[in-house]
Amino acid sequence: MSTITRYVLRELIRVFLYALAGLTGVFLVAGVAQEAVKEGLPPTQILRVMPYILPESLRLSVPVALLLGTTILYSRMAGYNEVVAIKALGISPTAILWPTFAVAFLLSLIAVWLNDVAVSWGRIGVRRVLLEGVEEIAYGMLRTEGSYSSNKFSINVKGVEGRRLIRPIVTLPPRGDMPEGEIEAQEAQLESDPRENVLKVVMRKCVWKVGNWSGAFDVLDPEIPLSTASRVEERSNKPSCLPLWRIPGEIVAQQEAVERNREELAAAAAFQMLTGDFNALAGPGWDQRMAYAGDVRTRLCQLRTEPYRRWSAGFSCLFFVWMGAPMAIWLRNKDFLTSFFLCFSPILAIYYPLMAYGIDGAKNGTVPPISVWAGNVVLLAAGAWLLRRVFRY
Question: What is the pTM of this model?
Answer without folding.
Answer: 0.83
